[in-house]
């Protein structure tokens, strides 16, 4: 009888864990709509729409109902309560004469700054570099040229160790691993679908596709598995963010909440 009770208890615990699902998170649509997603049901609920957000390609939650969005060539913080928008960074400020810069996917780092990839085009310039932006000092640092086979721009980035990043290569249905200091490609994984965003929830890393498919991703070998499919959104999805807070200065100079220990929970590779 005692053994039967223990087995029943284990089954109940397992069922409870399965029903608990994931932590809640956010996703962004190609039309600028931002949704809150229930981690248990994967049902999305629209909570805000970025004005002129057709060029939005990534988001990071910055706390106090604010979302940092990468919109073509700017990082813009959106207050989803008041509707006010604050430009945190504009890559156009760093263009030379007759040059055009475009920012692509971005990622918060363990250093507290933001890593992004930048396409630079000009009379004597045509490359694709990694770069860092420190929102507290407004320092923009150009890094190495990213030497990969990506046909266009990375839709998103994810830091997995110091100077080691993932790039979501939408056009080639793959995930690229590269060193941000040297720009050299370290590995490439064919995932069999077009990834648009990484999503880190606790110690687990997921890939989101444009149709709302949420896939587990193993950074050791690049293997993936469909976890589930989101519902309740319109059009295509382009970005995802956890509810962990990434710290940037407020417009008044007063800092928001802290980075929330993401680096402490990440599995180093």
Q: What key phrases describe this protein's structure?
A:
269 residues; mainly beta; Neuraminidase; four-stranded antiparallel β-sheet; 9% helix; disordered N terminus
Structure explained in plain terms:
Helix content is 9%, strand content 48%. It has 269 residues and is mainly beta. It has one domain (23-265): Neuraminidase (6 Propeller), CATH 2.120.10. The chain has a four-stranded antiparallel sheet, with no helix packed on it. The longest helix is centred in the N-terminal third of the chain and has 19 residues, at 2-20.
CATH fold-type name: Neuraminidase
Count of individual beta strands: 20
The termini sit apart by 46 Å
Give the biggest beta sheet. Answer: 4 strands, antiparallel
Number of domains: 1
> Into which percentage range does the β-strand content fall?
over 45%
Going by CATH, the architecture would be 6 Propeller
Oligomer class: single chain
Taking all Cα atoms into account, the compactness measure Rg is 19 Å
Strands of the widest sheet, in order across it, are 3-2-1-20
Order of helices and strands: HEEEEEEEEEEEEEEEEEEEEH
Shape: globular
Q: Class, according to the CATH hierarchy?
A: Mainly Beta
Which structural category do the helix and sheet elements fall into? Answer: mainly beta
The low-pLDDT segments are 1-19, 253-269
Report the helical percentage.
under 10%
Continuous helix count: 2
Mean pLDDT: 85
